[in-house]
Write a structure and sequence with these properties.
Number of strands: 2
Shape: globular
Oligomer: single chain
Largest sheet: 2 strands, antiparallel
Distance between the termini: 54 Å
Length: about 250
């Protein structure tokens, strides 16, 4: 107990500083089957991100349907370039399987990227909350297992006993490690950036905050956010494709 307190004392001291804000706030509390449930920063930012995606999709759809295919507008060009780029990434990595999984992968990319860069707009990234990243990883894990069962049928289960039956526990752990590694990688990187920025804003004097935060946000939110979006999406495509091509 004493060791843990001593090791984490700088974090505790920083979190107790009134000027240090990691943007973790609860707005509404209500009782749910005897448990107190809170609507916190993560829920609010997630709703904002989802609303932005929905509004953009509706405007893009209207622009494409009503636009002139021979003389597309500027916004229509942007939408088509974005979709073609993202669709190209999926096609290059999944080949003939891309058509069935493109919608999920594209949605995943857009949601994670917008969530990651939400810090640029003064919001706390939802991906800095493990509940969000493990949720995304579980959905991906279900798709991976679906691909395995669709391709190998019972082989998806019997393969866990190969090459020797006593290796089943190790093979099972290897499968279950997929959602853990996906979720922890994204969560750890985004939380680290959020903590670093919170400490910077809370513990340094005002003159040290002039200009420098722009570079910090550019790295932790934009650059790191784009990298983590690519890594999560790429691993999702690789894992699914491996299962689909297992019997090829």
């Amino acid at each position: 107990m004493g060791f843990g307190t001593a090791a984490l004392s700088p974090v505790f001291l920083a979190s107790q500083d009134a000027s240090t804000d990691f943007m973790i706030q609860s707005y509404v509390d209500y009782s749910f089957f005897g448990h107190t449930v809170s609507i916190c920063t993560t829920h609010v930012t997630t709703i904002i991100v989802m609303a932005v995606i929905l509004i953009f999709a509706l405007i893009a759809r209207r622009s494409v349907l009503k636009g002139d295919p021979d003389a597309p507008s500027g916004f229509q060009n942007v939408v088509e370039l974005l979709i073609e780029f993202l669709d190209g990434v999926v096609t290059n990595n999944m080949g003939t399987h891309s058509r069935k999984y493109a919608n999920y992968i594209l949605t995943l990319m857009i949601f994670i990227f917008l969530s990651n860069i939400s810090g640029l707009f003064g919001l706390r990234p939802p991906t800095a909350d493990y509940a969000v990243t493990i949720g995304l990883a579980v959905i991906t894990f279900i798709l991976i297992q679906y691909a395995a069962i669709k391709t190998s049928k019972l082989g998806a289960f019997t393969d866990l006993f190969k090459p020797l039956p006593f290796l089943f526990p190790i093979n099972l752990i290897g499968e279950l490690a997929t959602p853990l590694s996906l979720s922890l990688r994204l969560f750890g990187n985004m939380l680290a950036g959020t903590i670093m920025l919170g400490l910077y804003y809370g513990l340094l004097p005002w003159f040290a905050k002039l200009g420098i935060p722009v570079a910090l946000h550019g790295y932790f939110d934009l650059f790191s956010g784009a990298i983590q979006t690519y890594v999560f999406s790429m691993l999702t495509m690789v894992f699914i494709t491996q299962k689909l091509d297992a019997d090829a």
